[in-house]
Amino acid sequence: MKRIPSLRAYLDALDDLGDLRILRHEVDPELELGATVRRAYETRAPAPLFERVRGAAPGFRVLGAPAALSSRADQPFARLALSLGLPPGSTPRDIMGVLSAAHDRPRIPPREVARADAPCKENVLLDDAVDLGRFPAPLLHDGDGGRYFNTWGTVVAATPDGSWTNWAVARAMVLDRRRMTGAVVPTQHLGMIHRQWAERGQPMPFALAQGCEPGVPIVSGMPFPAGVDEADVLGGLFGEPVDVVRCETVPLSVPATAEIVVEGHLSHEETAPEGPMGEYAGYLSGAPRPQPVYRVTAITHRNDPILPVVVAGQPVDEDHTVSALTAAAECLRVLRAADLPVEMAWVPLETAGHWCVVTVRADWRQRYGSDPRELTRRIAELVLATRFGAWMARIIVVDDDVDATDLGEVVWAFATRGHPRDGLLVFDAMPLLPLMVCYTAAERMAAEGPKLAHNCLLPAPGPDRPRRCSFEHNYPAEIRRRVLEREVTGRRPAAG
Prior knowledge:
Blueprint: H1 7-17, E1 20-27, H2 32-42, E2 47-53, E3 61-64, H3 78-83, H4 92-101, E4 111-112, E5 123-126, E6 148-150, E7 154-158, E8 165-168, E9 172-176, E10 179-181, H5 189-199, E11 204-210, H6 215-220, H7 230-238, E12 243-246, E13 253-255, E14 260-274, E15 277-278, E16 284-285, E17 289-301, E18 306-309, H8 318-337, E19 342-346, E20 355-360, H9 364-368, H10 372-384, E21 394-399, H11 407-417, E22 424-431, H12 441-446, E23 448-455, H13 471-474, H14 477-489
Parallel strand pairs: 1-2, 3-18, 4-12, 20-21, 21-23
Antiparallel strand pairs: 2-3, 5-17, 6-9, 7-8, 7-11, 9-10, 10-17, 11-14, 12-13, 14-17, 15-16, 19-20, 22-23
Helix pairs in contact: 4-8
């Protein structure tokens, strides 16, 4: 795998693919920037790089859609593939293979470099020079609770004893020139570490690294167990340590090539209203809720820094490309570890994480038994028990003649193979995310509700098993060969 060591090198790679659009006209950070990025998602346009943002200091730039689907129809996952050091034409299976392997690779701790060798130290702002207003934090959606400075950056935090340093992607909204607030969920790793500091009666030191090398936000969103340092995982993924540098005012280290680093402390006492915000399910979600306040003590940045932004909403954006592939990879890893006859697991991007499709191998009856409902139940139990299970409302189990990554095939199989009553398995009182609008207000408030599994497995081979009518499955290989050859050459294929 070929590691891309900085955001700027990543932009060069996108530019080489024709997947970067440089916008030199002035853009308003209040809604216009967000609307432009949303339009780029929905039309599969190149990633927009805004060079002039109204109100920002000269030279400050914004990158939209950093890991969305590519504008290259032949390489739809190019941005995610490049972020993980893979060729731009890599398939979802290729990417999932890397994500799954990251759990088991030997880990390599980061390498600390001198401040003079760290691009993120080109400008150091302390004391009265600290001002979040210098940066083009945008109002991304009509209805957002404020301007969000962080939608794709990595929050670095460590336990009080220093035994665990966590990297996490967590949204953060600007309050004023030296304060932010953001979602700190108690059950997530950032919330766990914050609680440890609060139990000591102390604020939590933090660093927010924006515009890191592209592998950093990917790994920061993966579902590793508590106690695992994502920096070590990223080093193991590429076979070399990640360069980090010590912060100016807190005892933490950040990726040395980051574009912008914000340092300070997350209060254990002070809160401020945060949200609502346009979110991954495709809706403006939530009401303002009190969240801990980030107090900023230092900012460092590169010359002409770049702030990456994600404008979450209706699929497909980074909340779906990155989360869907990491969720699918985790589900596949768990199912295979349980020795189930699973061929593929996939979270269709268009479902905003609400579906998980699992395909099982043709010999599953010989290996597992003949009860399709029991196999479906076991698969669903394991998927729903993963960290991503709370995102999902439906688990769909189908035979492996269906390509789980092809939404058209999945919808066809779901519609034609799942019995409307007997194919359903109901799991009551399951954890769910409050952002899932398919649940009632009471269920969202309790973060608990029903989930469904759909047994869409065909009958065993025999007279009751329907025969699939498609080019790939209905016609002999020799007929297919002749048709394909004529399609390419436009001539009658040679005999034999």
